[in-house]
Write a structure and sequence with these properties.
271 residues; alpha/beta; binds zinc ion
């Protein structure tokens, strides 16, 4: 029970899973993964995300326009997102953000869609799932003008100071396969030093494979390997890391998680 963990970020709607999606879900559940959050990326994929999520009680949809596809998005998509989110009650608006790592992505366009979706999340009182690369300070600045109730900085990569600023704004930081690599020194130090109540687990499948599955399709089946790394790095027990990160996600996204109860050996900070 206590080892139940949740993949806070897996793109199960992607074609990479079309051939064996049910098998992947089945073996992930057998490995102890008790829930899956599928973030939205483009308007064209929202219905697929919703279809997969409604097929089982342990899969939750987020809806959003990903910065990576900013050339495909339109004002009609923003309007459509507002309508669909009001009707379908996703657990978050995401995945949205700012990617300054890839030079071909138009920063102005990305900012436009990010700001509009932050405002929508605020209107709907929903958390957000953020994709940020080489833009932590910029996004912190944008969040000042477009505040939201919080959410997740997915695949967080930044300084402990930047992490602290996101935590102050109600965010948890997502850690995935990258922390399984010993060479990810900076990221592993961060995952060691952050308070446990600021961490959620993720795979970002089919991308960002961990060390054991390098160059292969990533999958929520491998989420326990992220837990393995955190167990090696941190002082808390495996059970406590599993239970606390699951509780963090449950609270952030208001999830109803089948079979999840607080473990006896974990102290609730808010009795
Ligand atoms: Zn993603």
């Amino acid at each position: 029970m206590t080892k139940l963990i949740i993949d806070s970020h897996c793109h199960l709607d992607m074609p990479a899973f079309d051939k064996d999606r049910q098998q992947v879900l089945k073996s992930a559940r057998q490995a102890g993964v008790g829930g899956f959050v599928i973030p939205g990326t483009t308007a064209g994929r929202w219905n697929k995300v919703l279809d997969i999520a409604t097929s089982a009680g342990d899969i939750w949809p987020a809806l959003g326009l990903h910065p990576y596809y900013c050339d495909e998005h339109s004002q009609a998509d923003l309007d459509g997102l507002a309508d669909l989110a009001r009707r379908e009650h996703p657990v978050a608006i995401g995945e949205i953000g700012l990617d300054l790592f890839l030079p071909h992505l138009d920063e102005k366009k990305q900012r436009h869609y990010l700001e509009a979706q932050l405002d929508l999340a605020r209107d709907l009182d929903l958390p957000v799932i953020l994709h940020i690369r080489k833009a932590n300070d910029q996004v912190l600045q944008i969040l000042k003008q477009h505040p939201v109730k919080g959410g997740i900085c997915h695949a967080f990569s930044g300084s402990i100071q930047q992490a602290g600023k996101f935590i102050d704004l109600g965010f948890c930081l997502g850690f995935g396969g990258m922390i399984t690599y010993e060479r990810s020194r900076k990221l592993r130090r961060l995952a060691t030093e952050l308070p446990l109540d600021a961490i959620v687990l993720e795979t970002d499948a089919p991308d960002m494979s961990g060390e054991k599955h390098r160059y292969q399709r990533n999958s929520p089946e491998y989420l326990p390997e992220v837990l393995d790394s955190l167990e090696q790095l941190r002082r808390e027990s495996r059970e406590e890391i599993a239970a606390r990160t699951t509780l963090n996600l449950q609270q952030l996204l208001s999830l109803k998680i089948p079979g999840f109860m607080l473990s006896d050996n974990m102290t609730d900070r808010h009795p």
